[in-house]
């Protein structure tokens, strides 16, 4: 079978991450100077970039002690409401740097008094030109519509941003990511659980995808990939929200995909959720979480051997591979999902 573009670009992630990390780590002092003039962070994004922003939010709040929030771009673009953003670091994220809504919202934030950063794969793009500090990812051209290497390099850029804002972690952890992702691709494709999970999902109309804390953005991104590349209903939820009612939808036709970083303070809750799901007669499929989540799950794919603060850079990779395999199992071309384009414009 011909290799899809999506699968080829999944395999390009180790080198894309290596280039991006080595290019951006020297810019930490520049970020520190800009961040010193601010007290909180506002992320501006849509789609996969918005899921990357969720990672950035949890990273900065849990490891740098600063308030971080997700913007509502329509406040700027539709309502035209001016806010006091003095003391805010506005961080806009867009793989292309050409989404007009995101460019306009970053310009609005600057006009409202914010300092500005852009994370984009589009060097020389309108978004990069709008920001005071553009952090350019070096993913190379991404031809498949579902974001893979542009997403993980965005996470790498946000990890560097976090170091500049005050995340008290070892940059050496970040430098280990490319090799870890390379090994994780091999381990995932060799795992018997891959075929087991793909086969199970090919026979159901949808799934619940859940994680918490720093892994929450990964759960949202995996749910998005299942929806856009496989046309299945996939609900991405924090497991705290899942337990507040939506868990009622988990049954023999709606399995749970559970995402966790090994060593995370949220791992015990994820394991307990897997046990509850299986106790209710449904299937629970683990992504990461080490042997504990694997033992509690129906089947599980490996996660990265990385500390929690950078684990999401690898944690999404088994999910990407699973989605690409599932799309082909369903007779869908994962490179060109119906109704989608590489650059999405919204009003």
TrEMBL record:
Enzyme Commission identifier(s): 3.5.-.-
Chain coiled-coil ranges: none
Enzyme type, top EC level: hydrolase
This protein's UniProt keywords: Hydrolase, Repeat
GO molecular function, one term: hydrolase activity
Record domain SIS: where: 30-171, 197-337
Alphabetical list of SUPFAM superfamilies matching this protein: SIS domain (SSF53697)
Pfam families linked: SIS
InterPro entries, alphabetized: GlmS/AgaS_SIS, GlmS/FrlB_SIS, SIS_dom, SIS_dom_sf
CDD domains: SIS_GlmS_GlmD_1 (cd05008), SIS_GlmS_GlmD_2 (cd05009)
Cited PANTHER family: AMINOTRANSFERASE-RELATED, GLUCOSAMINE--FRUCTOSE-6-PHOSPHATE AMINOTRANSFERASE, ISOMERIZING
Name under which the protein is recorded: SIS domain-containing protein
Species in which this protein is naturally found: Actinomadura gamaensis
């Amino acid at each position: 079978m011909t290799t899809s573009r999506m699968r080829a670009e999944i395999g390009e992630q180790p080198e894309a991450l290596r280039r991006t990390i080595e290019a951006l780590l020297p810019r930490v002092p520049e970020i520190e100077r800009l961040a010193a003039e601010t007290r909180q962070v506002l992320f501006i994004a849509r789609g996969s970039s918005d899921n990357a922003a969720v990672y950035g939010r949890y990273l900065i709040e849990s490891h740098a002690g600063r308030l971080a929030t997700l913007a509502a771009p329509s406040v700027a673009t539709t309502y035209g409401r001016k806010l006091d953003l003095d003391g805010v670091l506005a961080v806009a994220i867009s793989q292309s740097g050409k989404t007009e809504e995101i460019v306009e919202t970053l310009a609005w934030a600057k006009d409202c008094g914010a300092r500005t950063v852009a994370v984009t794969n589009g060097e020389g793009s309108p978004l990069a030109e709008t920001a005071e500090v553009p952090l350019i990812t070096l993913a190379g051209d991404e031809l498949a519509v579902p974001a893979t290497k542009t997403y993980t390099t965005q996470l790498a850029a946000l990890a560097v941003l976090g170091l500049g804002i005050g995340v008290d972690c070892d940059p050496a952890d970040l430098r280990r990511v490319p090799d870890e992702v390379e090994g994780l691709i091999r381990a995932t494709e060799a795992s018997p659980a891959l075929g087991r999970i793909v086969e199970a999902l090919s026979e159901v109309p949808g799934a619940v995808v859940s994680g918490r804390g720093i892994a929450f953005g990964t759960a949202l991104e995996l749910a998005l990939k299942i929806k856009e590349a496989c046309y299945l209903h996939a609900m991405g939820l924090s497991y705290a929200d899942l337990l507040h009612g939506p868990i009622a939808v988990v049954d023999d036709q709606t399995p749970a995909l559970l995402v966790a970083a090994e060593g995370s303070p949220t791992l015990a809750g994820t394991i307990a959720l897997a046990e509850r799901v299986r106790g209710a007669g449904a299937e629970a499929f683990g992504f990461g979480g080490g042997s504990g989540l694997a033992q509690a799950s129906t089947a599980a794919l490996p996660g990265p051997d990385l500390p929690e603060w950078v684990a999401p850079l690898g944690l999404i990779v088994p999910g990407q591979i699973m989605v690409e395999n599932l799309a082909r199992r369903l007779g869908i071309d994962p490179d060109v999902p119906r109704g989608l384009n590489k650059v999405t414009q919204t009003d």
